[in-house]
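S2.1 Query sequence (Dehydrogenase)
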Amino acid sequence: MTAETRPSVCPHDCPSACALEVEVLPGDRIGRVHGAAMPYVDGVICAKVARYAERVHHPDRVLHPLRRVGAKGEGRFERITWGEALDEIAARFKDAAERLGPETVWPYFYAGTMGHVQQSGINRLRRVMGYSGQLKTICASAAGAGWAGGVGSKWGVPPQEIAQSGLVVVWGANPAATQVQLMGLIKQAKTANGAKLVVVDPYRTATADKADLHLMLRPGTDGALASAVMHVLFRDDLADRDYLARYTDCPERLERHLESRTPAWAAAITGLTEAEIEAFAKLYGGVPNSFLRVGYGFSRSRNGAANLHAVSCLPAVTGAWKHKGGGAMQSTSGVFDLARTLLDGLDVPQRPVRSLDMSRIGPILTGDVGKGPPVTAMLMQNTNPAVVAPDSGLVRQGLARDDLFLCVHEQVMTETARFADMVLPATTSMEHSDLYTSYGHTFLQVAKPVIAPQGESRSNHRVICDLAARLGAVHPGFEMDEWEMMDQVLDASDLPKAAEIHAMGWLNCGKVFDDAHFLSGFGHPDGRFRFAPEWGAEGLPELPDHFDVIENADAAHPFRLITPPSRHFLNSTFTETPTSLAQAKEPTALIHAEDCAALGLESGGMVRIGNAKGSVLVRVAATSGIARGVVVVESIWPDRHFAEGLGINHLTSADAALPAGGAVFHDTKVWLKAMLPADDDENGA
Ligand SMILES: Nc1nc2c(c(=O)[nH]1)N[C@H]1C(S)=C(S)[C@@H](COP(=O)(O)OP(=O)(O)OC[C@H]3O[C@@H](n4cnc5c(=O)[nH]c(N)nc54)[C@H](O)[C@@H]3O)O[C@H]1N2
Ligand SMILES: Nc1nc2c(c(=O)[nH]1)N[C@H]1C(S)=C(S)[C@@H](COP(=O)(O)OP(=O)(O)OC[C@H]3O[C@@H](n4cnc5c(=O)[nH]c(N)nc54)[C@H](O)[C@@H]3O)O[C@H]1N2
Ligand SMILES: [Mo]
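Output structure tokens follow.
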């Protein structure tokens, strides 16, 4: 069998946005998928996408429009035609809007595809129709606010510079699982420059396993660690005072404020030793071109934005930004600067419309809706909130409401789709066209379909245009195909045509050195990095500090739970593919061996993890590679894979992080109990 190879782009919500080479087999099936030669990717992709055929040709692909025949959530459906489906959805949306006003309709979407055309149509439709808006908080709000507070621009030093750096610090990220190419760059820095790797993470991830120094702090205490590191930098004259005077807002005030933020102070908060904090500070202060990769993990706490800001202050104190291979990166998404008017329908005149916080879908669907009507009609694309959103108990209660009309456009039968009244089949990125940017590198890409749509599946763009026609929504974006749309967006952004970018393979939109390193100024009007951010909300610390608003462990809940992504899944995507499932095995709690001994827990046994919201039963793995008092359950398994059918987000809170929202997945106090699956007392505490 000979395979032809066609170019594509990985559409998933991952910093790497990989350029792909897809083998296409006779019969219009995809075979192996390889990494393309694009710099950064350099031929390397994750194992999940290498076997993408498992997903595209999965027996559980939704291939036809389906209408619910069973009870809500039961997952029993009948096949209907596209015409019937679209007519019924339009009728239900119109009816709901007539009864309660357009805000009763909540189009709900996220980044299951990162393609701009396929992702944005639903938002354009809701603007034209005056439906409820959405605060897109589930991933990057806290991190974004923290970074914006100090740096001000949504980019940093491109990751390829890691290869030239003298010290790499990975803070609250696990690239070995979440962006594999970074590990290759770190290896190059080690080999070429003798660079050391420091990892700041509450447990020994696959990334931390490669570290020269692993700081295993308590979750939610990064602001304390960063403050003490800066204390040492000032105390030991490792701060670059010329740089500080030229590029930052209030270095003297910061230095005075940090006088009491000693390593001893931080040791008590973080659980690290003073010696560890001193050693890290001296290492960091001793290398001019240190590269700080600031992750998302530690932003998923009530104090996440403040902590991320505190950490982002480090290179401004040492002046690492001045050097090739030095500085920091959190996201690169700001380098692209796409003209979004056509995509999002920003030209549509707006009546004041409420925006609902997507991370609070549970409380909102169960009554906590604020001003305006209850939500009674939803269209969902590119997200699986029954599994990924916090406080799953409330989310499921809401999705199961009889007075909610729920339409889910999906590729596979997710646990969310099972709650739907109508399920529509979606094409995958292998079957539609789109334009991709990235939040982990600076390359713009365009993809064409490599195979025909599976079954009767249709792209998001097509479904939104068809619905717009039935709803009477008028906008030029609903009259174009994907290529016309891409060309108009690119043209308005002063970029080449889509076909040209596709032919080139990728287009580097990276900044020149002085801009990428902010030597021409940070993103605030005065061009200075801000140690004292303008938070735009009350109550946050004025300067880097420990911001004690987290759920601290207490006598009734002596542990803190963190729920980071699994290497084998991509959020809840790939939880349907057989190889990923086999490799991830089953939901497992990592707990310190001494904590296990104290609680009578044994590796291989079961532990019940609980709080006021309920409890979840998982397998125990004892380890020495975790901070004491911390339990890690790598997620995000669908609920049905847990021993009692309740997944980990049943324990997480829908509270919003300050100042701009953000889900607090790693900020949960819990109790642990050794238990056999049959034992069933004590739900809640
Ligand atoms: N294989 C795989 N890749 C993915 C994803 C996936 O699910 N699977 N998800 C994708 C998405 S949507 C995103 S946003 C990115 C996220 O990728 P990353 O930026 O790597 O962030 P996370 O994976 O959320 O968390 C990383 C680490 O933060 C640690 N952490 C938790 N709390 C704290 C804390 O308080 N302090 C510190 N210092 N560390 C803490 C966790 O233990 C975890 O190891 O990855 C993307 N890539
Ligand atoms: N406990 C815990 N929960 C978390 C996190 C955590 O670390 N811990 N991480 C959070 C983070 S960072 C994020 S970003 C969210 C992510 O949560 P989600 O955005 O819900 O991501 P996925 O679970 O990957 O679900 C995406 C869905 O989109 C579908 N999809 C993909 N492409 C298309 C398309 O072109 N059209 C249509 N119609 N559908 C498509 C896929 O089949 C998949 O079911 O989860 C959050 N939840
Ligand atoms: Mo994310």
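Residues 142-330 form a domain with the Dimethylsulfoxide Reductase; domain 2 fold (CATH 3.40.228.10). DSSP finds 24 helices and 25 strands in the chain.
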